[in-house]
Each structure stands twice: as C-alpha cells, then as structure tokens.
Amino acid sequence: QKEVEQNSGPLSVPEGAIASLNCTYSDRGSQSFFWYRQYSGKSPELIMSIYSNGDKEDGRFTAQLNKASQYVSLLIRDSQPSDSATYLCAVTLIQGAQKLVFGQGTRLTINP
Amino acid sequence: DTGVSQNPRHKITKRGQNVTFRCDPISEHNRLYWYRQTLGQGPEFLTYFQNEAQLEKSRLLSDRFSAERPKGSFSTLEIQRTEQGDSAMYLCASGEGAVSNQPQHFGDGTRLSIL
Known about the structure:
Helix content of chain B: under 10%
Largest sheet of chain B: 7 strands, mixed
Oligomer: heterodimer
Helix content of chain A: under 10%
Mean pLDDT of chain B: 93
C-alpha cells in the first residue's frame, strides 16, 4: 500500500461544475496535509493546507479532512479552464517529520 | 519575496559526468528541501536542511549524491558519475520556521537529462 494515494485520473469536469479530488494516506498519526497544483512543466504551487478535521475554505477551493477515515479531499467550485492541471496531495506522515510525502497526482481537465 | 530560485533550469549531460545544481531559498527560510520528480509521479523527498545542518536523507540519496548548505542560505546538490536513471526534475523547496506544518514553497526546478 502506498503511503499517500490518489486516483491518477484523468478527471474531466465541465466548466462551471464542482471538481472533487480525493486522497487517502496510510499513517493514522499524520499531522499536516497540503494540496499543490502543478501545471505541465512547472513546479508545484501550494493552494491549500489543512491540519484539523473538517472543512477549510479559500475562495473557490475547499479542503476537507477526515482523520478517522484517513482521507483528505479538495473541492474546486465554479471550475475554470485555468484550473486544468495536476493536483498533488502531500502529507507529513509522522509528528516531527519534515518531509512531505506526495501522492502521484490527479490530472484534472476542465472542459469549456 | 522573490520566491525559491533554482539554477540552471535545464541541464543536459553525458552519462558519467558530474553535475551540480543550486537553490536559493526564500529569504529567511530556515528549512530547505530537495525532491526529485519523474514524469507522472509526485515529487520524492531526497534531503532536508535546517539552517546549515543536513538533518535527514532519503535512501534514494545514494553515495553519488551530495548536498550542502554551507552558510544556511543557498544549497547545492551534486550528482557524481551520472546515470540514465538520474534523469528527472530536481526540485528545491523552502519553509519558514522550524516546524513541518509550515508549508513548503517550491522553486521552478532543474530538469536533468542524461544522454
């Protein structure tokens, strides 16, 4: 079992709809959770961080964390073609660990 | 805030040559990380510095790889006797403070191609 798992996609969503991206992680003691967006040929760009159970909203983005289910998700409302990218879930697996463990990423395409 | 800067952006070299990459973190960021990313995969951790101290190294970091951060500012990653399998994007990230829950911010990376 991979430490951080994402569906690699591609995930295709019509413009204006809600895109839902999911991520599961293996270590129940994981502390910090991040979503990065990566355009083709570019570096990962931080879009959301979440540390406690529940929802966290920032503009059109909502991150959801459920530690009991070891599940973190990202919702993108009113999807735009510019949201088309690979979305990477990253986790710090144990308390005090510094490194991020990434999933393989989900490729999202927003269709005009 | 100029962001994390990496040089060169691209490096093409023949197998067996040595290469060195440089990373300049965001000013005053204590934490500096190196990751490697291959096509279709998420970044994989290589090593981590807190100021000038290298505190963690991945098993991926074979003895051909060495990283330094001599004055706690910029860092270099050297690969000796490069192999085909070293072809990848090498990403540097930095974070402020001393705790891992502060986000890491990535540079644009150095793309290494081994001929």
